[in-house]
């Protein structure tokens, strides 16, 4: 797999290193997750920096801009966070890193965040988000079947019986859904099987991850991987559709009401906690790292309640400062912006449609480039 913008770090002797650097070394068989002891060697000999300097390496990345990103972030991610060296924050470097994100995601990060800080999501939308997470399931297999049956029936209703049969056979044989502590992950490949790992029992989370699983099946597996019309990538994964389906069609899914899709609530129902946390970090940050961590922790409590752990809070704290120095608070890892922006765009797409059932099927089949 090409080097892409993943979320996590690997821990090595109580130190953390961004997975991107390990993946890059793995392209040359220099290091893997199982050979982390070689990381110091490749840093000291300059192997890692040489790979980041080598223009011939660009094709190993999902997007060529990521090579420049990892090069610019090297002092922060390797020297500060992995080697614990005293590297100071560099505003000019931060601007260059953010420019890569703006260019790749086609957004103006500062503009979006400043507009949000002036007019944040209404309390009504926040309450709707919280309310939707009150729907829990008791049996993970029954809940999975509930959603997949809804999709199968929807496909047949819209004259895609062949795809419905293929999807049913694939999911019954290959899909594994299980609980795991911490963070929810979707469609992790393991040989010819595919895993969804859930950290809670909310229907919205399960449906969200199952939408990803269906999308990826039709993008990468169905009929020899040549069925999709979209030349997209993993970094721009379709969070917008996953959130729209999980929130706007939740009650339709629970009652298997396919026709009700046409009259689904058009108002904003999804609220992204990420942009809200970004905004508060910019408003209330301090030079005290503990204060900033506590700020993230308390903000996440508004959405996670007793599901929040110290480990998960630290995961998100690190995630927001990914590619940047801990001392800066005006630039953050903006991939989570896609949750906010992508959902708004998909909602507008469905609101403008005169045949929402058909549109939903085309989106799940990955016939619509989102």
Helix content: 40-55%
Q: What Rg is obtained from the alpha carbons, in whole angstroms?
A: 21 Å
User: Would you report the number of β strands?
Assistant: 5
How far apart, in Å, are the first and last alpha carbons? 22 Å
Q: SSE string, helix = H, strand = E?
A: EEHHHHHHHHHEEEHHHHHHHH
User: What's the number of helices?
Assistant: 17
Q: Helices and strands: which structural class? A: mainly alpha
Main-sheet strand order equals 3-5-4
As a percent range, the share of strand residues is 5-15%
> What's the oligomerization state?
single chain
Shape: globular
Biggest pleated sheet: 3 strands, mixed
Overall average pLDDT: 86
Catalogue the unreliable spans. Answer: none
Short description:
This protein has 370 residues and is mainly α. 55% of the residues lie in helices and 7% in strands.
List the SSEs and their pairings:
Blueprint lengths: L8 E4 L2 E4 H9 L11 H6 L2 H7 L11 H16 L10 H15 L3 H10 L4 H10 L7 H18 L3 H14 E5 L5 E6 L2 E6 L4 H18 L18 H10 L1 H6 L17 H12 L4 H16 L5 H11 L16 H15 L4 H9 L6
Parallel strand pairs: 3-5
Antiparallel strand pairs: 1-2, 4-5
Describe the structure.
By secondary structure, this protein is mainly alpha-helical. It is built from 17 helices and 5 strands. The protein has helices at 19-27, 39-44, 47-53, 65-80, 91-105, 109-118, 123-132, 140-157, 161-174, 203-220, 239-248, 250-255, 273-284, 289-304, 310-320, 337-351, 356-364; strands spanning 9-12, 15-18, 175-179, 185-190, 193-198. Strands 3-5-4 form a 3-stranded mixed sheet. A two-stranded antiparallel ribbon has the order 1-2. A hairpin with a 2-residue loop joins strand 1 (9-12) and strand 2 (15-18). Helix 8 runs antiparallel to helix 9 (161-174), helix 11 (239-248) packs across helix 16 and helix 14 packs across helix 15.
């Amino acid at each position: 797999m090409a080097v892409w913008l993943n979320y996590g770090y690997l821990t090595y002797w109580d130190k953390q290193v961004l997975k991107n650097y390990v993946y890059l070394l793995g392209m040359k068989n220099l290091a893997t997750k199982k050979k982390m002891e070689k990381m110091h060697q490749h840093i000291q000999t300059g192997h890692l920096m040489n790979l980041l300097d080598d223009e011939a390496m660009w094709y190993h990345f999902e997007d060529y801009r990521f090579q420049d990103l990892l090069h610019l972030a090297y002092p922060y991610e390797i020297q500060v966070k992995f080697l614990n060296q005293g590297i100071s924050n560099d505003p000019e470097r931060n601007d260059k890193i953010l420019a890569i994100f703006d260019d790749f995601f086609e957004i103006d990060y500062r503009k979006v965040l400043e507009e949000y800080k002036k007019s944040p999501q209404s309390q009504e939308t926040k309450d709707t988000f919280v309310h939707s997470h009150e729907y829990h399931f008791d049996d993970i297999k029954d809940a999975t079947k509930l959603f997949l049956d809804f999709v199968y029936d929807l496909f047949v209703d819209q004259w895609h019986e062949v795809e419905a049969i293929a999807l049913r056979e694939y999911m019954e044989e290959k899909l594994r859904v299980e609980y795991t502590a911490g963070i929810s992950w979707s469609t992790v490949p393991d040989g010819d099987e595919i895993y969804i790992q859930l950290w809670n029992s909310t229907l919205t989370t399960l449906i969200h991850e199952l939408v990803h699983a269906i999308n990826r099946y039709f993008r990468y597996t169905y009929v020899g991987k040549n069925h999709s019309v979209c030349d997209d990538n993993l970094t721009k994964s379709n969070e917008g559709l996953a959130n729209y389906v999980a929130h706007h069609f939740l009650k339709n899914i629970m009652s298997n009401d396919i026709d009700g899709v046409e009259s689904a609530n058009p108002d904003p129902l999804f609220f992204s906690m990420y942009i809200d946390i970004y905004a508060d970090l910019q408003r209330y940050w301090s030079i005290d790292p503990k204060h900033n961590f506590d700020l993230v922790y308390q903000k996440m409590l508004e959405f996670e309640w007793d599901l929040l752990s110290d480990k998960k809070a630290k995961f998100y704290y690190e995630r927001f400062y990914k590619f940047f120095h801990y001392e800066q608070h005006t630039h953050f890892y903006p991939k989570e912006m896609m949750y906010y922006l992508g959902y708004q765009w998909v909602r507008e797409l469905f609101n403008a449609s005169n045949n929402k059932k058909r549109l939903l099927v085309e989106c799940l089949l990955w016939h619509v480039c989102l």
